[in-house]
Specification:
Blueprint (H helix, E strand, L loop, with lengths): L8 H42 L15 E11 L2 E10 L7 H6 L4 H12 L4 H12 L5 H7 L3 H10 L6 E15 L2 E14 L4 E9 L4 H14 L8 E4 L3 H10 L4 E4 L1 H10 L6 H12 L4 H15 L4 H14 L10 H4 L3 H14 L8 H18 L6 H6 L1
Parallel strand pairs: 3-6, 6-7
Antiparallel strand pairs: 1-2, 3-4, 4-5
Helix pairs in contact: 3-4, 4-5, 6-15, 7-8, 9-10, 10-11, 14-15
């Protein structure tokens, strides 16, 4: 059998160079042909506009006079083309097709928006586009192009919701907005839904001045009006905000409510002396890691006996919150770990903070909505064919 000689790296490099040279020549010829075609159209339009008929005296019916050209760069999929656009004293003659084409090709504009949605800062987006289109795009230009996301944001807020969600996770995240009076914190209320089969989606977000009962009630009422009536809703998991708990009693009073153990643990640790923190944490962890509801109640009694003398107020508050902290034991065991915290939504907030950290603060509230929508839209696309195994097993 004949020995097959592997293709050398030099040959591969030669083939690659030939391919690049070929397509480079094609693109250059296309650029030149497109440039000539568009400039000819511009010239003809000006000629039709300024020409004087042979039977008319010069000056009687002339509408305008030629006034040279101006240059304009147009970004296309074939690179940047510099065009000489004909003009008269009163108007310019941009070809009609070019007006519909706009200044940047759809592919390039899509590249800018997609890079923005992927979490690349506006300044870096400009540099990246320059490598592809040969045009240096400023951060301001990128911001301008991404403003067409405003319509997508409006559609997201108004989109109908099917009443098919089994679990609802609610939480809030703080962001900074630059206002005339200085930087101001804005609270973003967020809803994350999970169906019975484990599929999930970020359902809604809303700017708010805080997490009062009125703010959360307005947010939940909007979800209700959009279609999330709650007929199939089995549990709502929250961070323990008192205003949110009160709002749930108004909008979804019959749905089981689970308070987040991660938030509760932080609250417990904040109320004890440093020397006791590890032991308090260990005893509290034994409650939610119990094998059954009965064992969890026994673990709480142990916690109560050990710590009520030193931290009576903390123990009384934990006892008061216990029914909502142990609600997850009524569900399939495979779901306990997911249902006892709001970690699923907190992971989304990690990405929000990562994406917004380079911005320091937002210029206006519209920019807040754009970036939150873009991040949530990205997550929803990623999750289309992926489910949460814990809920899939129960289904």
């Amino acid at each position: 059998m004949a020995k097959v000689t592997p293709i050398s790296e030099q040959y591969q490099y030669f083939v690659q160079q030939q391919r690049e040279d070929f397509w480079g020549d094609v693109y250059r010829h296309v650029q030149l042909a497109l440039k000539k075609f568009l400039e000819t159209i511009s010239e003809r339009e000006r000629h039709r506009y300024c020409v004087v008929d042979s039977h008319e005296r010069d000056g009687e019916a002339r509408r305008d006079y030629r006034n040279g050209y101006y240059e304009r760069d147009w970004v296309t999929r074939f690179g940047t083309i510099r065009l000489r656009i004909a003009r008269s004293r009163g108007k310019s003659f941009l070809p009609e097709g070019l007006r519909r084409f706009q200044r940047r090709a759809d592919d390039v504009a899509m590249l800018i928006r997609e890079a923005f949605l992927r979490g690349i800062s506006t300044r870096k987006v400009g540099r990246m586009v320059a490598l592809v289109s040969e045009e240096a795009v400023s951060a301001q230009t990128v911001s301008q192009l991404t403003r067409d996301l405003d319509e997508a944001v409006r559609k997201f807020h108004r989109a109908a919701l099917k009443d098919e969600w089994a679990y609802l996770f609610l939480d809030g995240v703080n962001l900074k907005v630059r206002r005339p009076a200085g930087r101001k914190r804005v609270q973003m209320l967020v809803a994350y839904g999970v169906r019975g089969d484990g599929s999930r989606q970020l359902l809604a977000f809303q700017r708010s001045q805080g997490e009062s009962q009125a703010a959360w009630e307005g947010f939940l009422q909007r979800l209700y009006r959009r279609g999330l009536v709650g007929e199939r809703l089995q549990m709502i998991v929250t961070d323990g905000c008192a205003g949110l708990a009160a709002a749930l009693q108004t909008v979804y009073p019959e749905v089981s409510h689970q308070r987040c153990w991660a938030h509760k643990m932080r609250n417990l640790i904040d109320k004890v002396r440093k020397r006791d923190q590890e032991e308090v944490k260990s005893d509290a962890r034994a409650i939610y890691q119990a094998e059954s509801l009965q064992e969890a109640r026994q673990a709480f009694k142990h916690f109560q006996l050990r710590w009520r003398k030193e931290y009576s107020g903390m123990v009384r508050q934990l006892e008061k919150d216990l029914p909502q902290l142990l609600a997850f034991f009524s569900f399939p065991r495979c779901q306990w770990k997911k249902l006892r915290t709001t970690n699923v939504i907190e992971r989304c907030f990690v990405e929000v903070r990562r994406r917004t950290r380079p911005m320091v603060c937002f210029v206006n509230v519209q920019s807040v909505d754009r970036i939150i929508y873009s991040i949530f839209h990205y997550f929803n696309l990623e999750w289309q064919n992926r489910t949460l195994p814990a809920f899939t097993q129960a289904a």
